[in-house]
Amino acid sequence: MIKKLLGLTTLSVLTFGLAACSGEKADTSSQSIGEQLDYKIVGIDPGAGLMKLTIDKVLPEYGLDEWEVVEGSGAAMTAALAKAYKKEEPIIITGWSPHWKFAEFDLKYLEDPKGIYGDAEDTNTIVRLGLKEDHPDAYKVLDQFQWEPTHLESVMKLIQDGMGPEDAANKWTSENSDLVSQWTEGVNKVSKEKLRLLYVAWDDVIASTHVAKNLLEGVGYEVDVVQVDAGPMWAGVSRGNGDAIVGAWLPTTHADYYEEFKGQFEDLGPNLHGTNLGLVVPAYMDIDSIEDLLE
To answer: Where does the record place the ABC-type glycine betaine transport system substrate-binding domain (predicted)?
Structure first.
């Protein structure tokens, strides 16, 4: 029976399944990967579609009945990865890209022969119904906002290196004026009209949301950004409590929310192509496929 652990604190996630912090390193050469990790995969927040897909489909379809996915947060997951990587210890995480961790560490996706994680995803811009009529210039900025994974990763790296999200967005937009000009082409200046952007606390979404905030503030809007879980994020825009989302992962990660609220929002389409989902390990680990976890 597949099990999962609920309500773990960040500290719990950081220490779960990793070797002791002191003393001699245990000899695990005769152990399987599952035994070395106590059959645990370090995950993120439980509301993420990546978690649901891993727990409900990937584990059962590959016959990984002994394995568990530890729920936590994106920040806890990357901290656990950094701790294991520093010691060259084994770890498996639920991962996605674009993400700064691929620039920081030498990582690889485990092959998914059954194709359960699907092809590359997009991140879409979702706006509330009526935004075009109420704030046509904001609508135009959001509709024209399209960039590449390398752009997003640059902003994420600035934040990871210690810069606040607003400062990172401001620095990046000031250094990429050509792109900003494309996104704001034909947009009129407004005077202190208020907008609210909703986002989940994933590193890529934090970065993209603050860039969108910077763009909108650049044409005169007063923008409030509100961090919520995935469900409330979709419900908020669908019910008019938020104006837009720029980090909707589709067609897989947020598929359930898309269907639940379909007809209650407007989908402006992808603002970024080429995201990926899957199980990720450090390159020094001698496994290449999800099927290797059966050994």
So the answer is: 32-174, 195-293
pLDDT value at position 21?
44
Can you give the CATH number for the domain in which 228 is found? 3.10.105.10
Which runs of E-coded beta strand occur in the chain? 3-5, 40-42, 68-70, 93-97, 107-109, 121-128, 194-199, 222-227, 244-250, 265-282
Contact present, 238 and 117 (Cβ < 8 Å):
no
The residue range of the domain holding 58 is 3-118+277-294
Number of domains in the chain: 2
The mean pLDDT value of the chain amounts to 90
pLDDT tens, position by position, 265-291: 999 999 999 888 899 999 999 999 999
Compute the distance between CA of residue 120 and CA of residue 275 in angstroms, rounded to an integer. Answer: 5
Contact 277, 151 (CB under 8 A): no
Sign of the Cα pseudo-torsion (48, 53, 58, 64, in order):
positive
93: domain CATH number?
3.40.190.100
Identify the sign of the CA torsion 80, 85, 86, 89: positive
**Do 42 and 167 reside in the same domain of the chain?**
no
